[in-house]
Specification:
- The complex is a heterodimer of chains A (554) and B (337).
- Chain A contains 20 helices and 19 strands.
- With 554 residues, chain A is α+β, with helices and mostly antiparallel strands.
- In chain A, a hairpin with a 5-residue loop joins strand 4 and strand 5.
- The two termini of chain A are 47 Å apart.
- Chain B contains 14 helices and no strands.
- Chain B is globular.
- At the A-B interface, helix 2, strand 10, helix 10 and helix 16 of A face helix 2, helix 3, helix 5, helix 7 and helix 9 of B.
Chain lengths: 554, 337
């Protein structure tokens, strides 16, 4: 019964101009039994011309494990959920620091800073036409907490738990939702958490109709949709593609396309060739080399959006060399930030030396460190390590990471630090990192929600350094704890004046840059290449902010 | 008569420990890799509670022998569990991905055999001549060129520059999911449905990856055919045949090839099996949703149920093909019966 309920839709309803029995115009050839020479023409004509209002993207989407908003925690899944569902509030794509209305047209915060009252839009409808009510919104938040999948921790930031959510989140009527946080928090933090995919509003009746063995519809919703967003999920075939059909009755205005198909193409060169041949409209994972090669093509355009992923080095403080303050500082002068950006990443990464991504409240663009081996040598000599030392660097065995590791190995050698590169599969490297068995770790980190508290807690707060600590943040993974900085993170979390809060984070990052055993190096930039006549893709702040609704072919 | 009955029983006696060994090896490998499988399910940032709960759900907190016993019991029931990545039953995933690989490997093997065998025969017949050298160079290149590179070059030339073939993927994206799968083999399903547009699209998409993969099969088969033919051509019965005045064509294609065919069957069967599990790079370049790409993706994401299931199925296919080639051997060579 369970499997039947989960069975994926194997037969996609074709668009009206693509009937199953009659092929598209360009492929309108009957099987040529008569003339062998027609076989060549037959094969040449086989590829159907793109449908004008169908947009095809090439992207590596093998990271998707579920499309249930309560379970989605990966980049590609976040992007899909962002387009299938609405949330009470949204991050403004044009001004990432701002929160704009979503399903809630307005909201009020009580004088004590604990009660948030959201007034819902009266015109919002789910894809099946049912109105979106406050009851649906309350159910969605409670459901995410009760399912207790990984992203539930975003809602737990508000002090909500599976035990208290029924009392703290209530819908007094169909149009109003009230959230009471146990403690007064910065309103920006509360609202930012409500923009995360896990806070998406699902249609209660539909989800519960598919509940199996008390799973709150999790099994069904992993491969279906029940949202009010501009699209509904037509098909998701893991490792193949997903297809979203436009919701013409979307309250925010019908999408400018009828169907979005995102095909799982993992090889960047393949994406590039398909883009050049016109078989896809967007290539989403092109590397610096491909982008460079395509940059002169007058038929193509490139959309860019700053991603929130930070590339950093982590120095394990259990290592007797790496824990010395002079060594920490020296290493920050041994990274050739600009050289690697220029030679390895092109437009896909920008130099960024602090833990808050660009666009976040309190983000700073300071660059206190440059590649300066002489200064690094002086610092090492001061630490009694004039002849350097040996250390390992754990790194994923993919192209860009390995290239970086090799470049770091060369630049570190300038000050006598002998790096041994330990490549491994991504999960293997992560397993070792979480077990705190590394010397230096080269990796990436993205915030859980678009508020500065997310990365500040991750890189600074480590209240329990024991091996069995429930918290496995980067600070814990590197045996690093600074109680004074951690106290300032807690203060900033509760600061209700936004300007003052931004100032707190700026100061926090500047102090952190000096002492923390993390070398923040780059921030990702997503570049989507597309033909000049296809426009309207919005790359937001992080994958969950990417929007398909405006894409159209001119 | 007694030997005829005993032979299959003997094969079966070999089969059981082989399958058990395969089960044990795949299970142990999955448990000794230095990767935490819970990470694949809960991600990097789950709370300690969630982590522990999933660890228990996966049965990883139990002794190794209990885990193995449960694994064997489930496999015996045809249950490989669920994939952490796709959330589907692994058997359903395999049923979805395997036909794509079978279609690709079959087409590649057909190309390899139909071209490789004649080339091998001709090379042996003209040993030391220009044709022989050409075939040997062809084989050498096939052995030395990385399939990934050749795939990209082929895409660049025949798809991007010349536009002779359709691009990556099994079928044009607009036809995806419009055909109800019967066998999972797109060419067969579209032909059964009489949908020639999809058939032509599938054929156009299959042509290039099958040719690239087929080239490697061709290199192997032609080289082995040449070697086996040279063995046969040095035999006394060939001298006798020629002395009796048989035409060279008949000597080559009927007598020599007829005898070389016996070991060649094993070569082709193993080459086919190798393509089934070794087509992963081709599948990556051509965005071909086959079992190789599925297995690799599962491995990289520590989706152990999927890894174990796919490995076991591929292993069983290997064993089955081996078995079949043994049986064919008996059929083709009366001395073995």
């Amino acid at each position: 019964m369970r499997d039947q309920a989960r069975a994926r839709p194997v037969r996609l309803q074709p668009l009206v101009d693509l009937p199953e029995t009659s092929p598209p115009q360009s492929a309108a050839v009957s099987f040529p039994w008569r003339a062998p020479v027609a076989l060549i023409a037959f094969l040449l004509l086989a590829a159907a011309a793109p449908q004008r209002d169908t947009i095809v993207m090439g992207k590596a989407i093998d990271d998707i494990v579920s499309l249930d908003p309560a379970e989605v925690y990966e980049a590609s899944g976040g992007e899909v959920v962002g387009n299938l569902y609405d949330r009470l509030v949204e991050v403004d794509a044009k001004a990432p620091g701002l929160i704009r209305p979503g399903l809630a047209r307005s909201w009020q915060v009580s004088a004590d800073g604990r009660t948030y009252t959201f007034s819902l839009r009266p015109d919002a409808r789910f894809a099946d036409g049912a109105p979106v009510t406050a009851s649906d919104a309350a159910f969605s938040l409670a459901r995410a907490l009760r399912l207790d999948k990984a992203p539930a921790l975003v809602l737990e930031q508000l002090g909500l738990t599976r035990e208290n959510v029924a009392a703290q989140v209530q819908a007094p009527d169909a149009d109003h939702l009230v959230i009471v946080t146990p403690r007064a928090l910065a309103p920006g933090l509360v609202l930012a958490c409500l923009t995360a995919p896990v806070a998406s509003v699902v249609e209660r009746s539909v989800v519960l109709a598919h509940e199996e063995e008390g799973d709150l519809g999790n099994y069904w919703l992993a491969a279906h949709s029940a949202g009010s967003g501009p699209y509904r999920l037509a098909v998701w075939r893991p490792s193949e593609h997903y297809t979203l059909d436009a919701n013409p009755g979307y309250w925010g205005g019908a999408p400018r396309n009828r169907r979005i198909i995102v095909r799982d193409i993992r090889e960047a060169t393949t994406q590039r060739l398909m883009l050049q041949r016109g078989d896809i409209d967007y290539a989403r994972d092109l590397g610096a080399d491909q982008l460079k090669a395509l940059s002169a093509d007058p038929r193509l355009r490139f959309d860019k959006g700053v991603d929130t992923l930070i590339t950093y080095l982590a120095l394990n403080q259990r290592n007797p060399y790496l824990r010395r303050p002079e060594v920490i500082e020296a290493i920050k002068y041994l990274v050739d930030y600009d050289g690697m950006a220029r030679n390895l990443f092109g437009p896909t990464r920008i130099v960024h030396q602090s833990f808050e991504p660009e666009g976040f409240l309190g983000a700073i663009g300071d660059r206190p460190f440059d590649y300066d081996p002489a200064r690094a040598r002086t610092l090492l000599a001061r630490a009694g390590l004039a002849h350097g030392f040996a250390a390992t660097i754990d790194v994923r065995n993919t192209g860009p990471s390995m290239d970086m590791a090799v470049a770091l190995q060369a630049s570190f050698a300038q000050a006598g630090i002998r790096l041994e590169i330990v490549p491994g599969d991504s999960k293997q490297v992560l397993t070792k990192y979480r077990a705190r068995r590394h010397d230096i770790f080269l990796g990436e980190w993205g915030p859980d929600y678009p508020d500065p508290n997310s990365n500040a807690e991750a890189f600074i707060v480590n209240p329990d350094n024991a091996e069995d600590s429930p918290q496995k943040s980067p600070a814990w993974r590197n045996f690093w704890s600074d109680p004074a900085l951690a106290a300032r993170v807690a203060t900033a979390k509760e600061e209700r004046n936004e300007a003052a809060r931004a100032q707190l984070y700026r100061a926090l990052q500047r102090d952190d840059q000096r002492v923390a055993p993390f070398v923040f190096m780059y921030e990702d930039v997503e570049v989507a290449a597309h033909p000049a006549d296809v426009r309207g893709f919005v790359l937001g702040l992080g994958p969950a902010g990417n929007r398909y609704v405006g894409i159209h072919r001119q | 008569m007694r030997r005829a009955v005993l032979a299959p029983l003997r094969l079966l006696a070999h089969l059981v420990p082989t399958v058990f060994g395969l089960l044990l090896a795949t299970f142990l490998i999955s448990r000794v890799v230095p990767i935490d499988p819970v990470l694949a399910v809960v991600g990097d940032r789950a709370s300690a509670e969630v982590y522990q709960r999933v660890r228990t759900e996966l049965g990883l907190d139990r002794p190794l022998w209990v885990q193995f016993y449960r694994y064997v019991a489930e496999v015996a029931r045809g249950d490989f569990g669920r994939s952490a990545l796709t959330h589907e039953k692994v058997t359903e995933d395999i049923a979805r991905f395997l036909p794509a690989t079978i279609e690709l490997a079959t087409a590649a093997t057909l190309i390899g055999v139909l071209l490789g065998v004649p080339l091998g025969v001709l090379a042996a017949a003209r040993r030391g001549g220009l044709g022989d050298h050409l075939v040997r160079v062809l084989g050498l290149v096939g052995y030395s060129v990385p399939v990934f590179w050749l795939g990209l070059m082929a895409l660049l030339l025949f798809y991007a520059k010349l536009g002779w073939v359709a691009g990556p993927g099994r079928v044009d994206i607009f036809y995806e999911d419009t055909l109800r799968p019967v066998t999972g083999l797109l060419l067969v399903d579209s032909a059964l449905a009489g949908n020639w547009a999809i058939f032509s699209s599938a054929l156009a998409h299959l042509l290039l990856p099958a040719s690239v993969l087929g080239y490697f099969s061709l290199a192997y088969v032609s080289r082995m055919t040449r070697s086996l033919m040279l063995d046969q051509l040095g035999q006394e019965y060939i001298v006798t045949a020629r002395a009796k005045g048989l035409s060279e064509t008949r000597v080559l294609w009927r007598h020599a090839l007829g005898n070389a065919l016996v070991p060649l069957v094993t070569v082709i069967a193993l080459s086919y099996a190798a393509l089934l599990e070794g087509s992963v790079l081709t599948e990556t370049v051509f965005a071909w949703p086959g079992i190789g790409a599925y297995l690799t993706n599962s491995l990289l994401n520590v989706d152990m149920n999927a890894v174990l299931g796919a490995t076991l199925v591929i292993g069983l296919i290997f064993i089955t093909l081996n078995l079949l080639s043994d049986l064919l051997y008996r059929l083709l060579d009366p001395r073995v019966r």
